[in-house]
Predict the structure of Glycosyltransferase family 22 protein.
Amino acid sequence: MWRRVYFLLILVRIYFALSPSYLHPDENFQGPEVIAGRVFDYPVLETWEFTSAHPIRSTFPLWLAYGWPMYILRWLWEGFGYDVSPSVVYWTLRVLMLTLSVVMEDWAVHELVQSPRARRVAVPLVASSYVTWTFQTHTFSNSLETLLVCWSLVLIQRIVGDKKRSGILASSLLGCMVVVGVFNRITFPAFLLLPSLLLLPHFKRKPLSFVFLTLSALFAAFIAICVDTASYTPAEFTFSSVFSNPVITPLNNFLYNSDSANLAQHGIHPRYQHFLVNLPQLLGPAFPLLFFLRRSHISPILISALSGVALLSIFPHQEARFLLPAVPLILSSIRLPYNPQLRRFWTATWIIFNLALGMLMGVYHQGGIVPVQMNIAKTNETVTHAFWWKTYSPPTWLLNGKNQELTTVDLMGMPGPQMLDAVKISLPSCRTRKPPKIEGKGATYLVAPRSAYFLNPFQDPTKRKEISLEEVWSYRQHLNLDDMDFGDDGVWPTLSRVAGDRGLVVWRVTRNCWATEAPA
């Protein structure tokens, strides 16, 4: 029975993987956008993490995760004489992350949970989590970190459990995996610090395993530093620059995050944020079950999860996605209620929670951004400016080269009057009561949620407004959760506005010159 449920949940995972929701800008700007610009020469926007004097993001794990599929696509498409469309790259990477989740994550859970009875609960639980459906099928560094943590624990378990063999191969793989994990995210060691202590007796008995682990780690670190130094050195790369002026991104990242002033720019949270807010948000009804675990249920994977959360709680900047590696580990460790009625109630609550969060985060959350960018990339109209208001930052690499002539401006949550001032500066055309007189070339687009009622008066051509908005295209499955004005509008009116008028709209902006003229 549980296998049928599991295969059904794989279909659910496929559905969410192929939905264009946009969970966080980092899923593009800290991964695919950087590599796509270098493989396909797309005009891209590299964020400060990659452009500062001391870059804090390594390109090494990005090449390992996204570089090879992009090169394969380029080889295939160029072989037939075509250019690779960014939309093809985007969906290929989604399918890649889906495959990694289904194969590597589920396989790791299958190995980490050794009891067949517990495995029949753990595998479906992980597969039915909205975190698995959404975050793990997106191109987050946190998603890659989850896979690396799980498989590092698998290797540790194999090394410790097999006392007859030396474990040289597993130790060598572990050394490489740890380096990739650290260069991917410096939070990675937090989840392995305590479980790695289990290796000490093995290394004492078989020191050759430790030697191979160290050598493989040093070799992988040298390769990673070479890749980063080559990526961030303006001049031609030589091996001598690795020794004279190496770029060690994990060190830069650690130094940056050790400064509380730097973290304050990204948001300061209370120390309990991870345990009391983020973890319940990710686990839902599974979170209370942590408090009913017996001592016999405490396992290395649970220790890995809880110690990782505890260590990450030391740092004041705490986002829920930082805890992604803990989710499959905790879900593989909890025990469902023994009482049949309570278990049925819990199962119903678990299903409702994950379906609700799955639809919200996997379909509607900023779900129009990617489709809008792909639509702008295909439009035949010449567009010179695209202003994005009350949305996440759009991934410019999806514009298929149009950003060479199109300027994308992210206005974020700027107040309405200031937003209009910014848009009016770049307006290329002017509309009068007579036939339109074009002053300049190209159109100006404003992309904003339909729930932004501030724009409503500008959509009525009968009103004497300085600008007019003409709807060009829209995408219905879009919710803007960052536009919740509960204090000003009240709870129900705000929810009614945001959910009832959901959708992301592309408006063509034109200037009404007659609106500022005095009546005759």
About this structure: Residues 433-439 have pLDDT under 50 and may be disordered. The beta strands are 383-389, 407-412, 430-431, 443-449, 467-475, 504-512.
